[in-house]
What we know:
Shape: globular
Helix content: 25-40%
Largest sheet: 11 strands, mixed
Strand order of the largest sheet: 6-3-7-8-9-10-11-15-14-13-12
Number of helices: 17
Low-confidence stretches: none
Number of strands: 20
Structural class: alpha/beta
CATH class of the largest domain: Alpha Beta
Mean pLDDT: 90
CATH architecture of the largest domain: 3-Layer(aba) Sandwich
CATH topology of the largest domain: Rossmann fold
Radius of gyration: 24 Å
Strand content: 15-25%
Amino acid sequence: MISLIAKIVAHFRVNKIKKTYTKATKIQEDILHRLVKKAMKTKFGKDHGFKKISNYDNFKEKVPIRDYESFKHYINDIQKGQENILWPGKPKYLAKTSGTTSGVKLIPITKESLPFHINSSRDAILFYIKQTGDSGFLNGKNIFIQGSPVLKQLNGIFIGRLSGIVAHHVPKYLQARNLPTMKTNSIDDWESKIDAICEETCDKDLRVIGGIPSWVQMYLERLLHNKKEKKVINLFKNLSLFVYGGVNFEPYKRIFLKLIGRKINTIEYYPASEGFFAYQNDQNDSSLLLQYNSEIFYEFVEVNQIEKKHPNRLNLSQVVLNKNYVMIISSNAGLWAYNTGDTVMFKSINPPKIIVTGRYKHYISAFGEHVISSEVEQSIKFAIAKTKLVVKEFTVAPMIDVSRPDLPHHEWWIEFDKGTNPSDKFAEIVDSEMKNQNIYYKDLVDGKVLQPLKVVNVPTGSFKKYMKSLGKLGGQNKVPRLSNNRDFVTGLNKYIKKTESKN
Length: 503
């Protein structure tokens, strides 16, 4: 019955959304008007003359682009229990997420914004059902590997990770089918939690798995080990769908195929604490449908403009295809011209569909840690000061494909000064400082999802010679401090081996 009802709901809901495709720019215009009107009497609204804003040009004049640090004093007021700061009343939640220059960020989620986090996920599933005709997975169990749902309370506001917050709002029709249980999901120690999840799910009719790929990979590997099986499909014969978001799935595809034992369908989400921005609505198209009707007003700034004092800001009606934009949002969570730091590229205008191209600054988030350049630079600087070693060049990349019991990790490819023989102590110091710099990295290493970073010694002069071989020596060309893939270090390694073989 649920399967049949889902197909009927999917038919009507998907058709309703499709009818809005041509109205997307008008919908965005109306959203901006509603947001400004609603927040006119808030502290932020008064500070920025919302009463005088009647169109997009007025909005750009009155409300500059901000990052989290520029919002922080407003968030501090909210933490103190003050009302009507960024949005009428107080937010229901403050979602903890990793910061860029200020450590942990606390992003407001209001009673008005929360439903869109839930509904966008639902709509992605309905598109999948409408296209494939497959709704049978609703007759089995679903598992979502996520953060703890345990929340703290401060002045009437609950604080926790986004996934933990959302866990409290699973629709009633899914609650009986969702795993793990709240009790298991609340276990603090990751190793104990993953074992409990394995035990709780191993004999169930599991049909959908969701979560960040690296966490799900660990669950699947532990499951096979505990049950002495070679393929997940031997345990879950009806497993048909993997839902993921947060990181690029491409590097994991081969690993998942091997673990599961057969190819299954996937749906990509683009969720964030700041809002659920997009989802994959077509199995034959990897681009994501922008959530233009979720009370989020989007702006876009070309990457080469974002550092300017007055960058050229574009709304949805002004963007073009195949150009890298930094995404800026204003929403009913109380974020205003907020710089998400994410870069996106439009692959379709009608409907508006995007791909996520990364961050406008280099980063690593292969495991959801979002490590940025300043964090790795500070960490190596700290280790150099402690050991007095000389580092000539370095780059950092994720190592995902490892042989167990080895764990995934970050590889630091470092060229030390000639004659320097670094000990394991150097790597330990860098790793310790990385934990201080990035809370997510600390959680992943302490939780044994990642092992501590490893240092790869690069022969003297190799960086320079490799860059020269690429025609990228001098000028504005720089060795990337870090990458979210292994393209650069793979090329570097091949060059080193080729050079050594000649010698």
